[in-house]
Amino acid sequence: xxxxxxxGGLGTRLRPFTYKTPKPMMPLLNVPIVVRQAEFLRSLGAxxxxxxxxxxxxxxxxVLQKSGIFPKIQAHYESRPLGTGGALRSALDMMQGEWFFVxxxxxxxxxxxxxxxxxxxxxxxxxxxxxxxxxxxxxxxNETIEGFTEKPGEPTSGFINAGLYRLWKQDVMLLxxxxxxxxxxxxxxxxxxxxxxxxxxxxxxxxxxxxHERYLNAHYELMQEMAGSEGTPPSCDFQVIPPCCISPEARxxxxxxxxxxxxxxxxxxxxxxxxxxxxxxLPGAQVRAYAQIEGFIVGDLT
Length: 302
Ligand code: GTP
Description:
single chain, alpha/beta
């Protein structure tokens, strides 16, 4: 079955980092989000990958090709943003089968989805959260969807749209071709009202990486699940307070202190006496000598 990654958004909420690096290329524990997604889609049984990107999306396509996770990758370049629904609608001719997976390029899943391939209706994967503020809330009773509330303003617990779907081509054809549209607002309510959409609850690890806060939190949560300081170079002469994820290609001064809950990417440079905790140092970023950094994303914005 084909899998589609929606990777052509602007990533405005993760600026300024997304000026240079498209959001789906942002690293999660030093691996680009799209590469983690490709691994997950393979684990769901997808055999061919279609990536929907904007004009600067060649970086995304290139990193996916180099990963070798999918032998076949097809890219669809958009000349203007059409939204999640419009982008998918305009690439429908590229799908080889009647059914395909679709994933937002800014969510992360670890775990199994046993029922996903066994329904006759299109499926939206939902995940239970204690605070759905800022997410799309899906009111559902087991697999039956009762309604949607986009981005509730009040803190509410419940099931949110996790950004992963198994869709039927004919269902997506309900959207008008060549027009801007949102899957969440323009397609799913219609499918649900026609009894053509089911919910599937994902109980594994899930996170959305679309804002600075969520991006940092996902790093903390995933590191929490790691044993010790996985990802740290085996012999290092600087102080490491686990958990950490440190690229062997980072250059870190021997008098620096890294951790806890800190990621340092390839090509990053950390000066002498610097102390970094609960932070993500992106590839190529420079941390000056004696800097004290806690709870920040540090990038190379040049
Ligand atoms: P923000 O600007 O911060 O909201 O980020 P975003 O542009 O990525 O938008 P959003 O988080 O709503 O998008 C969810 C997913 O859909 C992301 O993976 C986007 O890359 C993707 N997406 C959004 N709009 C488009 C589009 O017009 N075309 C394509 N191909 N993907 C899109």
